[in-house]
Amino acid sequence: MDTTNDGNIPVEENGGISVPPPPPPPSGIKYINIEDDMKASYIDYAMSVIVGRALPNVRDGLKPVHRRVLYAMFDQNITSKRPYVKSARTVGEVLGKYHPHGDSAVYDTLVRMAQDFSLRYPLIQGHGNFGSVDGDEAAAMRYTEARLHALAEELLKDLEMETVEWMPNFDGSLNEPIVLPSKFPNLLVNGSSGIAVGMATNMPSHNLVEITNGIVQLIDNPETTIDELMIHIPGPDFPTGGIIMGTDGIESAFKTGRGSVVVRSVVEIEDHGKGRDRIVVKELPYQVNKARLVKSIADLIKDKKIDGITDLRDESSREGMRVCIELRKGVNTDVILNQLYKHT
Question: Tell me, what's the pLDDT at 1?
Fold first, then answer.
């Protein structure tokens, strides 16, 4: 039996009864294989996410939304030497001209670029409540104000001198830069993270002076080895500090692009008098929520998983972080410290 029709669509049989073919498509419409169409569409979607949303550009270290926020502020002359401007105004400028998505996504981006505990070198100066390392959220955009940081202006400098390519915005009414000129390696300095389709990135931040020295070394000697480069760039430099335990992960990341590091808090042991010691936490690993850490230590004490702690206080202030852990007289401080490292 002939199981094809004029539209080249197979005719299936069910229990010996032929299933009639679909009607011929209207004029100007043709049948296509859904599998082939899904493959092509998914590739287009994946490339859109990779290039246009989730991953940073290696040249300026920015994702499109970050770039648009900075460019919009630069275009409005909201620079480091000008007065602060309401965040809501900047968000509206970005939404209306360059980034037709949700306002919360744009404001969250602006807030993060102003947080000194999120970025090693903030790109925006914030005025008002921009959140805290305790996990407190920033105030609503109608209350906060912002302007470009002086360092961010180095990303945008010479933009008007045909240094980069431009593209039309979403409605074709304006042009926006594809990438910023970037006089410093922002991707290495501030790092970035993102999950796209089929690929992801997670790069830590580094010290600007160390990165600059490493670049000079490579310019002077392009044959520089990884070991020689690590003399200038010994490892990541996180916004909240911390101590990196070991260098194997750093060396692996330098050589292969993949590696992991273990970061511990920076602590000091103070003599509290009368034979009692106090553990003082001065720095935290990156992205550790201080309020949750204090709560987790309190839970360990309550559940008697750690014995010997008599008091726990968060004395942090504008001068810096200070979480005090008072110990009972006669307790081995090193034992308590190792238990804290193990359980938190």
Answer: 47
At 245 the three-state DSSP class reads: strand
**Do the Cβ atoms of 19 and 12 come closer than 8 Å?**
yes
Nearest in space to 119 (alpha carbons), one of 281, 266, 240: 240
Residue 145: band (very low, low, confident or very high) from pLDDT cuts 50, 70, 90 = very high
Please list the active-site residues: 143
- Token pair belonging to 7: 């539209």
Q: What is the CA radius of gyration of the chain?
A: 28
136 part of a folded domain: yes
Q: Please state the rounded mean pLDDT for residues 136-152.
A: 98
Question: What's the domain range around 166?
Answer: 54-186
Higher-scoring residue by pLDDT: 36, 78: 78
Task: Report, as an integer, the average pLDDT of 245-271.
Answer: 94
Asked if residue 18 belongs to a domain, the reply is: no
User: Is 28 inside a domain boundary?
Assistant: no
What mean pLDDT comes out for the span 57-71? 96
Please give the angle made by the CA atoms of 321, 231 and 149, to the nearest 5 degrees: 45
Rounded Cα distance between 14 and 30, Å, is 26
Which is nearest to 264 in space by CA: 283, 290, 292, 236?
283
Distance CA 147, CA 40 (A): 42
